[in-house]
Structures
1.
Amino acid sequence: MAVVIRSNLALENYSFVERMDLPFCVARTGKPWPQYFRDLLPLGTSEGVITKLHDWCKTSDRTRWDIVRGYTKPNVNALEVLSAIRGAGHEQILISVTTPEALDKYIELLGFERFFPDGRCFGICGSGLSKMEVLDDFVGKNRGTGRIIGIGDSYHDLLGDNNFLYAHPDGRAFREVPETFVKPYERVRDLSLVLKSLNG
């Protein structure tokens, strides 16, 4: 909901009549934020305008983190699952299509710092890197040889040997996965089901 509010404040600031709603934003979860504006606004809207809207969302005093804080909370069972993974001695990293600064703030708001300390949290917006490239670099630098388990709400997150495509238990639809996608994955609405892979 925070994205809806901040985006609509930006649209209002630049005198656009279009507005986003929650279903519109949920359907685009995992896409870069500028893409939301591209999909909403009339065809031919310049990239300069899209950039201005996005920048306003990131920097305006009217979109301070107190707006986000009211709508940000961990998903059901997220804390239990992250704690179990850490307790079992496994590495866990977070890769997101957002800026490093914004991702660090979200981690702080969620209270996830203990699960994703420095060097384990990667915001790749503007980096030119894909999630797979970041993962490969991390594994190479840390001499990882074990299985990789991917968890996310988009097939772009399913980068591991075992993968879980997540959809919120409130009934939101699972994101589509192309028929050409070949990595194994399981659909889950309960994050605790991921734990069965720890000893698998």
Note: The chain has a mean pLDDT of 88.
2.
Amino acid sequence: MRSLVLLFLVGCGDNLAVPDASNGPPKDDAAAGSDAAGIAAPDLRFQWVGASTANQIGSTINVGFASGAGGAMSVHDGHSVISPLQISVDGLVKGNYSWDVAVFSSTVPATGLSSTASTGAIAALDTDLSTTLGTTGVVTSIDIQPDAYAYVVQNDANATYTVSHLDAARSGIDAMVLQLANAGQVPTAVSASPTANQVRVYMTARTGDTTPYETQVVDCTPADFADQANTLAAAGFFITAFGRVANDKMILIGTRSNANPRTTTVAMGDETTTADLSTGAAIVAWIFETADPVSVIVTEK
């Protein structure tokens, strides 16, 4: 049974089988695997959900972009993995952006892993991202602004992934994503598109996986973000993509191969609270509201 934990942070910037290419994400009835045997990386399209009996945040780092000064990059190899971006949903100042990411480690130190958080001027997005992805990477988070971008990519040297993206009006996204998911592709990141009035979704295929996935695309705001995430998890969806598409407007995308219900838990804290990943939960979405200020981390397991 999968659970979701939401941590509301005020004032701050199961033992499941490891997924593989043949069966997609962990199934609720999957045979339990030992940490010692879990040396292969999980299917990175599913945000590390269900991949370990315990995770731990080691640090929080910041990557920014400033006009005239350029972007930033942080790379972690091996045991450390970079979480999805903390995305500011309001109060944005053009030409000056900042994103936080958490660096976490798993009790299962998978081989061949590396993670990159990178920012830059919007004109460089496609070239920069393609270079980082190669044939082994997955875009696990992205935030596209009119003049800049930030993304997180996780790479597994022992797997082959094929990443593509679609740009469309919001009204066409649900059907397009579902069609590709039915053929085995998973939506792993969503954001506003560089093309005005459109949404961009990154879809990822993994060699060997032809699972017909089901998807659900959900619009949300800071006010109903927690409820929408709860609803997705309760319906059995892994939250595989999350992003900002306009001020105070976000999209959550869930992916599932079965409809087994999950349970949800809500925890609240202040600026000293961090996401508790000790039971194997993984961060799947993270926002910051400048107006309040409130930060919300969504974890799933």
Note: Residues 3-300 form one domain.
